[in-house]
């Protein structure tokens, strides 16, 4: 609590807790709020997925964190991406490490660092509060959670102090940032591991995407997607992000013949509940269909329960479902390390942070796939989906075999404008170099379409480099990376 703050909802008790809980639930977790939030967060999600697809290979956890934090900044304090938001992101990382460490406030310890990060974050939010006080609307309208907290009054009409407002913003970010980021990371993992589930999701989302014709999905539409709901519940059951829940016995309690005396600390081991075959058949299997039936009472405690139940549980579900929508209807991706081990502390996640090779559905083709030869050049086979008919066999490997085959293939696709994307990670390309920007000079540059070429790393077939080409309609400005 020294790091999150003693005034935060996470620490508050009694009427103060009830008042804060009711405000926060209204602000972020009820249908009206969720409607507004769904519209606010989606542009960032859609643009993040576009940028991942352009990069070709990304570590999902790192990228999801960025977009989640940008959305949190907007929702809680109307902050746009900026150096200040980046600093806050760093401060929250430090605070989270501190919260999970021994509370030894001594220079060099994570706890001490967490306190320093808290103080720096307080400084930033204090400035924001002062700015708002100067420009406060006369009609008291609220654009975000911080505005709402500033206006919140107790029974005697007293408003929260500055530090109470700030502690609650800190508490919400601490409770919602990492948890949401990890659950979305697991979403990418499970959907890649279970393609039949992704396929069923596509069947649910594609028609909707078509019908919406470029507009974003609404939270009301999301609540009608039955299979999506089942997938989300199954992801959060298996992800077990909050593996334990703490309570203190308020009075002597008798449980299954054991007496728990008043004042004792009790830990509910939620991960055990969620993976107990008594509660869930074949519990370690990812089976969204199990949610055709509700869980047995008391066996599904992902968000805790009672008066302390998670204040952002519907918001978390909504954010996962929004990602599911944009991923299922717009992307395809593979796990780079499908057998990565899972670490469990501080939260369960695959050790590689879920590295994925990702591209946009329908806009990219696997262009050239071939065995690397002794010189590190690749060019044996052209594999194109719908464009196959326009492509002939690539030329045989040679000193410049890879370039030649790509150029041949491209020239057959369309007269196109071509830029070379970054070369991905760990790929050996022509002459063992990772810099393939020289290829830009060799490729055709006219017409209304542009293409980005990227080799993407595929570990399962060592020695094979697959080139991904993203073809885009040309926009007014010149696409980045084109040499003229
Ligand atoms: C998948 C994501 C999430 C998981 C697994 C999760 C889980 C939990 C759990 C287990 C608790 C403790 C409940 C108890 O003691 O009974 C909790 C509390 C809380 N969570 Fe979440 N949470 C998630 C997302 C969020 C989000 C997005 C927010 C808001 C931005 C949020 C805000 C809170 C708050 C404010 C509390 C304290 C509630 C209170 O003390 O009354 N959580 N959460």
From TrEMBL:
Would you name any one GO CC term?
Answer: membrane
State the residue spans of region: Disordered: 421-443
For molecular function, the Gene Ontology terms on record are: metal ion binding; monooxygenase activity
Cell compartments where the protein resides: Membrane
Bias class Polar residues marks the residues at 425-437
Q: Note the Pfam families from the entry.
A: p450
Q: Which cofactor does it need?
A: heme
The answer, when asked if Ribonucleoprotein is one of the entry's keywords, is no
Give the keywords, sorted: Heme, Iron, Membrane, Metal-binding, Monooxygenase, Oxidoreductase, Transmembrane, Transmembrane helix
The annotated topology with respect to the bilayer is: Single-pass membrane protein
Q: What is the official name of this protein in its record?
A: Ent-kaurenoic acid oxidase
């Amino acid at each position: 609590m020294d790091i999150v703050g003693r005034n935060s909802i996470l620490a508050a008790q009694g009427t103060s807790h009830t008042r804060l809980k009711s405000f926060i639930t209204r602000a972020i977790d009820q249908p009206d709020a969720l409607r507004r939030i769904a519209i606010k967060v989606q542009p960032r999600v859609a643009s993040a997925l576009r940028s991942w697809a352009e990069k070709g290979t990304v570590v999902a956890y790192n990228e999801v964190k960025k977009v989640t934090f940008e959305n949190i900044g907007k929702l809680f304090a109307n902050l746009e991406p900026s150096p200040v938001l980046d600093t806050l992101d760093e401060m929250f990382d430090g605070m989270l490490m501190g919260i999970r460490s021994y509370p030894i406030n001594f220079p060099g310890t994570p706890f001490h660092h967490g306190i320093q990060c808290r103080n720096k974050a307080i400084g930033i939010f204090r400035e924001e509060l002062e700015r708002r006080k100067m420009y406060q609307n006369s009609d008291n309208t609220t654009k975000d959670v911080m505005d709402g907290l500033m206006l919140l009054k107790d029974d005697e009409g007293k408003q929260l102090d500055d530090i109470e407002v700030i502690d609650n913003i800190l508490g919400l970010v601490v409770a919602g940032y990492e948890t949401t980021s990890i659950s979305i990371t697991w979403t990418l993992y499970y959907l890649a591991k279970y393609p039949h589930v992704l396929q069923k999701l596509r069947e649910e989302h594609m028609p909707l995407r078509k019908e919406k014709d470029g507009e974003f999905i609404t939270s009301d539409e999301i609540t009608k997607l039955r299979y999506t709901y089942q997938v989300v519940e199954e992801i959060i059951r298996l992800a077990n992000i909050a593996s334990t829940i703490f309570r203190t016995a308020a009075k002597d309690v008798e449980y299954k013949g054991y007496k728990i005396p008043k004042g004792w600390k009790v830990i509910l081991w939620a991960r055990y509940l969620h993976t107990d075959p008594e509660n869930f058949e074949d519990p370690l299997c990812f089976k969204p269909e199990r949610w055709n039936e509700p869980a047995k009472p008391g066996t599904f405690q992902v968000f805790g329960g009672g008066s302390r139940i998670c204040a952002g549980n519907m918001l978390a579900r909504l954010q996962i479902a929004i990602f599911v929508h944009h991923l299922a209807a717009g992307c395809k991706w593979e796990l780079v390390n499908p057998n990565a081990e899972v670490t469990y502390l501080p939260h369960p996640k695959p050790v590689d942070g879920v590295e994925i090779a990702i591209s946009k559905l329908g806009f990219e083709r696997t262009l050239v796939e071939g065995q690397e030869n002794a010189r590190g050049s690749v060019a044996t086979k052209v594999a194109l989906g719908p464009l196959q008919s326009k492509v002939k066999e690539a030329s045989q490997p040679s000193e410049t075999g890879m370039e030649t085959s790509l150029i041949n293939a491209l020239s057959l696709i369309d007269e196109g404008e071509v830029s070379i994307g970054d070369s991905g990670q760990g790929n050996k390309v022509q002459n063992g170099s990772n810099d393939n920007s020289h290829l830009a000079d060799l490729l055709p540059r006219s017409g209304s379409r542009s293409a980005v070429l990227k080799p993407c790393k595929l570990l399962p077939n060592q020695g094979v480099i697959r080139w991904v080409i993203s073809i885009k309609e040309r926009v007014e400005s010149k696409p980045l990376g084109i040499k003229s």
